[in-house]
Specification:
By secondary structure, the chain is mainly alpha-helical. The chain has one domain. It is built from 4 helices and no strands. Helix 2 (35-56) runs antiparallel to helix 3 (71-98) and helix 3 packs antiparallel against helix 4 (101-137). The radius of gyration is 19 Å and the shape is elongated.
Length: 138
């Protein structure tokens, strides 16, 4: 059975993230890297995953039948969501690179969480309007 391309990509990213965590943990146990460095590198990696995913959002093609609104509006919302998540991911990454480690994780979450909430709100609103339109037309 051949897995769908998006599932393969998601599993590859998860495997990369987990293997990096295992390698960094082993390097930390052998005193090759410090605990702070390992935490920072994992935070940066997660932020980069968010950035790459945000970059892919507007480029993903969706069949016209699955669109939640007209195609122009849909693409505008995808671009806006991509930008919001890209800025959130950039802030997340920079928090782990620049902030003191004691506050890096909280700061990173405070930067990324609003971006995720905005995109979730946009997606929920589009899905709600699409569902309402389908019910009204039936």
């Amino acid at each position: 059975m051949m897995l769908h391309h998006q599932i393969r990509r998601a599993l590859s990213v998860a495997a990369l993230y987990l293997s990096t965590a295992v390698v960094l943990n082993e390097l930390r146990r052998r005193d090759v890297v410090g605990a702070e460095t390992a935490v920072r590198l994992m935070g940066v990696l997660l932020g980069l995953v968010v950035l790459v995913s945000a970059n892919a959002i507007p480029k993903r093609l969706v069949p016209l039948a699955r669109l939640s609104c007209d195609p122009i509006r849909e693409q505008t919302l995808r671009r806006f969501s991509g930008w919001v998540l890209a800025l959130g991911g950039l802030g997340y990454t920079l928090a782990y690179v620049l902030a003191p480690i004691a506050i890096a994780s909280r700061l990173a979450a405070c930067v990324l969480a609003p971006a995720v909430l905005v995109v979730t709100g946009i997606a929920t609103r589009c899905a709600w309007r699409h569902r309402s339109a389908r019910r009204g037309g039936a």
